[in-house]
Amino acid sequence: MTHLPFAELHLHLEGTLEPELVMELARRNDVTLPYRDVEELRAAYAFRDLQSFLDLYYANMAVLRTRQDFADMTAAYLARAATAGVRHAEIMFDPQAHLVRGVPLEVVVEGIASVLATSEDDHGVSTLLIAAFLRDRPEDEALDVLDRLLARGAPIAGIGLDSAEVGNPPARFARLFARAREAGLHLVAHAGEEGPASYVTDALDVLGVERIDHGIRSLDDDALVARLVAEQVPMTVCPLSNVALRAVDTLADHPVVEMLERGLNVSVHSDDPAYFGGYLDDNLDALGSSLGLTREQRIRLAENSVRSSFLPADRREELLAQIAAASA
Ligand code: HPA
Ligand SMILES: [Zn+2]
């Protein structure tokens, strides 16, 4: 069976940096890393929690210096995503993580955007770009970076909120999200990955987000689940990520199928595929073998992914028709 067409809605571009590319870019840019080879680097990919992952994720970004580096990372992701059935990708990147290292905003944005511009022709993948802001850094810094992105006409369709969740509640970023909304941008936020269900409520009510990234901790609160079902709030769930970061013990314990059966508007995504053991197809295959995800459920996840995207109605209909044709 060929892959069903999917929309990838929860993907950190910097999380697609495969160990081989990390080492290649380190050589190219003369960056010294504390690993002799790919195997040593790969051995560091054992995480206790979100923070232990973030430490390595930010450290590896040291190899990203030039427009070409950002372009190469983006092109490698799109080529791999296309083989997974991804036909549309809403891609997050972390501008602050590069600015604090002294990499200019235009290098980051132009490097990424130059490749996205031809992605439909080159890979058959339409794309939207989402600037994600780091919740463990000050809101004023995020406001400044958002203003700079808007001032230079960066091709972003929305903003997100990521990085260390616990202790950094959504309400800290109310002004940022208000400004992005005024600018006509779409709004998403990570909530309920490690943080409590109340962060999901606040992301909806204080930030006004249209989609929740992760949201699995919502299951601790029945009233919240009822609301999420009633409002059909899109939730982008990342099973391999949750196991890698120990938010969930094993894939067999993952709640995504239960969420689907309870009527939540969930779709499955890959988060940081280079770090967590795989891309969209790998996540779906793993759910098939560990949770017995049925073909019918897989089709529903594909449809949800397209309906939860920020695509215009005509492109959504086109993708839904492709799903129907592929599942006939
Ligand atoms: O999985 C994640 N969670 C929060 N922030 C992140 N930034 C990159 N990946 C992640
Ligand atoms: Zn994420």
TrEMBL record:
Comment on bound cofactor: Binds 1 zinc ion per subunit.
Enzyme Commission number: 3.5.4.2
Catalytic activity: adenine + H2O + H(+) = hypoxanthine + NH4(+)
Binding site for substrate: D272
Domain Adenosine deaminase: 5-325
Site feature (Important for catalytic activity) residues: H214
A UniProt-annotated Pfam family: A_deaminase
InterPro entries given in the database record: A_deaminase_dom, ADE, Ado/ade_deaminase, Metal_Hydrolase
Entry binding sites for Zn(2+): H10, H12, H190, D271
Cofactor: Zn(2+)
GO function terms (MF aspect): hydrolase activity
Positions annotated as active site in the UniProt record: E193
Keywords per UniProt: Hydrolase, Metal-binding, Nucleotide metabolism, Zinc
Gene3D superfamilies according to UniProt: Metal-dependent hydrolases (3.20.20.140)
Family: Belongs to the metallo-dependent hydrolases superfamily. Adenosine and AMP deaminases family. Adenine deaminase type 2 subfamily.
Function according to Swiss-Prot or TrEMBL: Catalyzes the hydrolytic deamination of adenine to hypoxanthine. Plays an important role in the purine salvage pathway and in nitrogen catabolism.
Name assigned to this protein: Adenine deaminase
